[in-house]
Amino acid sequence: MAGPRFAALGMDHRHIYGMSQGMIDAGAQLAAWWTEGNPQPVSGFLKRFPDAPRAESLDEILNDDSIALVLIACRPDQRADLAIRAMRAGKDVMVDKPGCISLDEVRHLRETVEETGRIWSVNFSERFEVPAVTVATRLVREGAIGKVVHTTGLGPHRLNAASRPDWFFDAATYGGILTDIASHQIEQFLHFTGSEDAEITMATIANHANPRHPKFEDFGTIALRSGAAQGFIRVDWYTADALPNWGDGRLFITGTEGTIELRKYVDVDGRPGDNHLFLVNRDQCTHIDCAQAGMPYFSDLLNDIRDRTETACPQSRSFRVCELAIEAQEMARASRS
What we know:
This protein is of the alpha/beta class. The protein has twelve helices and 13 strands. It has helices spanning 15-25, 41-48, 58-62, 76-88, 103-116, 125-128, 131-141, 171-174, 177-180, 182-193, 297-307, 315-336, and strands at residues 5-9, 29-34, 67-72, 92-96, 120-123, 148-156, 199-206, 219-226, 229-236, 250-255, 258-263, 276-281, 285-289. The strands form two sheets. An eight-stranded mixed beta sheet has the order 7-8-9-6-10-11-12-13. Strands 2-1-3-4-5 form a five-stranded parallel beta sheet, sandwiched between helices. The protein is globular, with a radius of gyration of 19 Å.
């Protein structure tokens, strides 16, 4: 039996590749795609999905009742409006992060979800597309490190400035480094501490290395807390050329009875491959290769579309993460001015 049909909207960010492949691997069918113009990621999309037809217009997709889900990876300042239009056309939505870049957009998205009953899911890929996080989630739920009281999330990225479009260097169009990248680590803090909400206690932004792009931010930090749990986040665009991938993303989870470290994408000068997990508790001090652990987000989202449930990610968390990232961005801007 064929799975549900989906369409890809907007090719402004290469995250559309993983979003589309994840849905296909979960059993969905890529029915069509559409984007304005021909942004650079189109060529990579065509290479990966050569049989998917390009729709002549956005309305062609929105008016197709056989398409249940749309994936959105257009320019960040356009994502909320496109998602709202899609939900009002009866589509569920998976959007690349940042799902939106202003608190007004979050409010309008909340109102649209309530009005339409549609799903608005932000693909926080640094959790949803990382098998090591799947294993860490299981270990935390099993009590392997006791009660989680702290997370440290590190999100370094490679800039590749020459290949970036102009909008990428303007916080007004991409949202700023905390709204954008740090949303990943905020979501992981809520997920692993079992929190529904948090308070931003410190936030900073800077542009240390890119004077040619004065509206760009290449470094940011956040401190946050929820009840007894606290967290620290550092994000930047400083990945050096010698690293074999785009960034040495790590997550440190501290519990009352042990620790977990995730080396998500590379183990520098260590074990080959990605998705490394290190567990230390009363019984074990061990490395776990998580490469084959799977990524349940995509199949969970398909189940949510069918059953109208919230197993992939609670709807309230998607909204709150976006709000917290924007609040952190605004706090950092205010302290910088």
